[in-house]
Design a protein that fits this description.
By secondary structure, the chain is α+β, with helices and mostly antiparallel strands. The protein has four domains: about 60 residues, Beta-grasp domain (Ubiquitin-like (UB roll)); about 170 residues, Threonyl-trna Synthetase, Chain A, domain 2 (Threonyl-tRNA Synthetase, Chain A, domain 2); about 280 residues, BirA Bifunctional Protein, domain 2 (2-Layer Sandwich); about 110 residues, Rossmann fold (3-Layer(aba) Sandwich), CATH 3.40.50.800. The protein is about 35% helix and about 25% strand. The chain is built from 20 helices and 34 strands. The strands form eight sheets. Strands 16, 20, 21, 22, 23, 24, 25, 26 and 29 form a nine-stranded mixed sheet that branches. Helix 5 runs antiparallel to helix 6. It is globular.
């Protein structure tokens, strides 16, 4: 018997039996074996337990703490350490489940005592004691009958319920010392592989998320491969609290919510300035990249969404109403209406591609429990567009999309992003052959552009596969912003066609695309990324003029008038307040440029300048400042930087 295991470099390891992932690692080297946490076979998303035997021909990637997937294993095992620590401290407490989540894990407990914040410190210290024992983690396979008997004797009735519901003959149990838990894995070799843990917070929960069931207590925690990573995470966690867009939005006076319109933000004049500046920016790019803008209705007969497939696949997210004995819905997406527009006239192959953009307002139902400031709302607008093209134009259109995305992201300072190829979901429309064609087209386009990407299986839209653009912000958090979705199904559903060069009917391909995505959500993400320090061109107030005392107010008003006439968003603070107070207030409002006027500035006709990067300049010519300011706004630079060598004539701005 010869079992071949293929490694990422295409080298082959031969075994006389089906080896475990750990055995393969041992055959490569002792250090790798010591560091092994699990493995990925055939490029699947799931990390397999290191104790998993491998079939002949398995393509194996061994996972260690250096791999992002390794964190999942560490945290899975750390959840067991948390449960063990709690039960060592309070044996009467019963355990339920402890899954891995983004940035950590939690465990739900049935406890007769109410956990306190002080208990969290005690639990964390006990977790470190458990880890320091460095006990091996052993996997055992029990019959379900034996497992039920064991957990029943222990009074662990939640485990009994889980096993009963699984309806499987055998279940796996993981032991670490005398403590064990029902689990499918994966887990570390020894507890000492978990290098850094932190217990974070408490919350209430219900068994299996049903409020009719028993109420439990949830403890959130996290784990990392080393203390440095944990320290960085905790620092970012504190920074995230300061940058929370809901907090910043209130402090900066940008948006507002009211219970009369849940999930529907009100944008103040300041917030609306940002909103409109983003739309103007995108509109300029539409002209540059060959898009035409349209306006489509808000409410449609339900028959439209039956035809598009939205009613069957998306109705739980839609709003419905009935008028004149007809059923209607608010539109959750622009694509069906754009299909109607496309089909409203006969089109030739020469008319394609047709790139059509729409800033129409969309409405989607979000449960009250998941709404979160601007990040999850019920009404929003997207920089949404659709491209109707021939099959032979797909490659060019994807390339153009990525060029446009790079252009826009570079201007906004969003250059750290990753590309994910999301494939067919379980709930979908269309034939598998169509999906094969669409997924292959996207993959080929990415490869030809030499764009690295990660396959995200099963996460495509119900009508087609997609590219998801995951922006990584200043705190290293991923946010899905841009998207491109390749759709062969909606053109079929709407019987769309064009006359080809052969004078025959052909079906167009429909590309759904957005770059910022929802403007509401983008503003929330951008607020947190920039900590409220918008670039000059996007700032609600670009310049604030601050006077030392009211004797300079006339001079300040004169400068304010000139700035306003040149389209600068400016305000004069001539209040009878201390200078330090007024400067501090402008800083808190994150105004990019501050002109400070005292008696010397008034007498000389010059200005002093304070920039939000902490730069101070004095005795400056106002005209040169205005020219440099306008140039920075026109160029949409990230930061306004004073250039001492800049001459008025060389800037290219006409005053």
């Amino acid at each position: 018997m010869n079992i071949k295991i293929i490694l990422p470099d295409n080298s082959v390891k031969n075994f006389s039996h089906e080896p475990t992932i750990l055995e393969v690692a041992q055959s490569i080297g002792s250090r790798l074996a010591q560091d092994t946490l699990g493995g990925i076979v055939h490029g699947e998303k799931e990390v397999l337990d290191l104790r998993t035997p491998l079939k002949d021909g398995s393509v194996l990637k061994i996972i260690t703490a250096k791999d992002p997937e390794g964190l999942e294993v560490l945290r899975h095992s750390a959840a067991h350490v948390l449960a063990q620590a709690v039960q060592e401290l309070w044996p009467e407490i019963k355990v339920t489940i402890g899954p891995v989540i983004d940035d950590g894990f939690y465990y739900d407990f049935d406890s007769p005592r109410a956990f306190s914040p002080e208990d969290l410190i005690t639990i964390e210290n006990q977790m470190r004691k458990v880890i320091s024992r460095n006990e091996p983690v052993v996997k055992e396979v029990w019959s379900s009958k034996a497992a039920i008997q064991t957990f029943t004797k222990m009074g662990e009735n939640f485990k009994v319920e889980i096993i009963t519901d699984l309806k499987e003959e055998y279940v796996s149990v993981y032991k670490q010392g005398a403590w064990f838990d029902l689990c499918r894995g994966p887990h570390v070799q020894r507890l000492g592989q978990i290098k850094a843990v932190k217990v974070l917070s408490l919350a209430g929960s219900y068994w299996r998320g049903d409020e009719k069931n028993k109420q439990l207590q949830r403890i959130y925690a996290t784990a990392f491969a080393d203390q440095k990573q944990l320290d960085e995470y905790l620092h970012n966690l504190e920074e995230a609290k300061k940058r929370d867009h809901r907090k910043l939005g209130k402090e900066l006076g940008l948006f507002y919510f009211h219970s009369f319109a849940p999930g529907s933000p009100f944008f103040t004049p300041k917030g609306t300035t940002i909103y409109n500046a983003l739309i103007s920016f995108i509109r300029e790019k539409y002209l540059q990249y060959g898009y035409e803008e349209v306006i489509t209705p808000q409410v449609f007969d339900l028959d439209l969404f039956h035809q598009s497939g939205h009613y069957k696949n998306y109705r739980e997210n839609m709003y419905f109403t009935r008028v004149d004995e007809r059923d209607f819905s608010m539109k959750p997406m622009n694509c069906p209406s754009h299909c109607l527009l496309y089909g409203s006239e006969l089109r030739s192959y020469r008319d394609l591609p047709w790139r059509v953009a729409d800033f129409g307002r969309l409405h989607r139902y979000e449960r009250s429990g998941v709404m979160h400031g601007l990040n999850r709302v019920r009404t929003f607008c997207q920089d949404d567009a659709h491209i109707f093209c021939r099959v032979d134009q797909i490659q060019t259109e994807i390339s153009s999309f990525m060029t446009m995305l790079n252009d826009i992201y570079r201007t906004l300072g969003l250059e750290n992003y990753k590309v994910y190829l999301s494939t067919r979901p379980e709930l979908r429309m269309g034939d598998d052959k169509v999906w094969d064609q669409a997924e292959l087209a996207l993959e080929n386009a990415l490869n030809s552009l030499n764009l690295p990407f990660t396959v995200n299986k099963g996460d495509g839209a119900f009508y087609g596969p997609k590219l998801d653009i995951m922006f990584v912000d200043a705190l290293k958090r991923p946010w899905q912003l841009g998207t491109l979705q390749l759709d062969f199904n909606l053109p079929e559903a709407f019987s769309l066609k064009f006359i080809g060069s052969d004078n025959k009917d052909h079906k167009p391909v429909m590309i759904h695309r957005a770059i910022l995505g929802s403007l509401e959500r983008f503003i929330g993400v951008y607020l947190e990324h920039t900590s409220g320090h918008f670039p000059l061109w996007l700032a609600p107030q670009q310049v604030r003029i601050v006077t030392v005392n009211q004797e300079q107010n006339d001079y300040g008003a004169e400068l304010e008038k000139q700035l306003f006439e040149h389209g600068i968003r400016v305000a004069l603070d001539g209040r009878n307040e201390k200078l330090g107070f007024k400067i501090r207030e402008a800083q808190l409002q994150k105004v990019p440029c501050m002109i400070v006027l005292g008696e010397s500035e008034k007498t000389s006709g010059k200005i002093s300048l304070r920039l939000n990067q902490g730069v101070n300049k004095s005795n400056l010519d106002f005209k040169v400042f205005l020219i440099q300011l306008k140039k920075a706004i026109v160029d949409r630079t990230q930061k306004f930087i004073w250039n001492d060598n800049d001459e008025c004539e060389s800037v290219g701005i006409d005053l």
